[in-house]
Design brief:
Helix content is 15%, strand content 45%. The chain has 143 residues and is mainly β. It has one domain: Hypothetical upf0131 protein ytfp.
């Protein structure tokens, strides 16, 4: 493996696989199985699902896992020659996103992410998401 490539690491939250979920992007640090139960997750759903974009914004890598939110769908808007992704409520909708494990970052570290969503009209609200096979009440950036 080339030095500039990041290794893809898998890690399990939880002791038993039927009650566990995997983390797809893990910085070079161990993750405690208890961290997922401490409401240390934030749901994101757009360009920040790319680990390099998120790392550039936050200044450090943050572990994340694929996650699903129900009752919302992505809506693509065309602005000039570019498209932007929005999130709208829809009764039977589902949207794939990512659950960030934010116990490793400070509020100051998260401010650029929070401000970007806020600028686009999204705020942190409590909602249930599915992370792997676990349902968790977390904060999500919602309209």
């Amino acid at each position: 493996m080339k030095k500039e490539e990041d290794a893809l690491t898998m890690c399990w939250f939880g002791s038993y696989q039927p009650y566990a979920t995997s983390v797809v992007h893990v910085p070079e640090q161990e993750i405690s199985p208890n961290e997922i139960d401490k409401e240390e997750l934030i749901f994101i759903w757009d360009k920040y699902m790319k680990s390099d974009v998120l790392t550039n914004l936050l200044g450090k890598p943050v572990p994340w896992s694929p996650a699903l939110i129900e009752g919302y769908v992505r809506k693509w808007n065309k602005q000039d020659k570019n498209y932007s992704c929005g999130l709208v409520q829809k009764k039977d909708g589902k949207c794939l996103g990512a659950a960030l494990l934010v116990s490793r970052v400070t509020r100051a570290d998260l401010n650029p992410l929070i401000e970007d969503y806020k600028h686009r009209g999204y705020f942190l609200k409590k909602v249930n998401i599915l992370v792997g096979d676990l349902t968790r009440e977390v904060f999500a950036f919602l309209p």
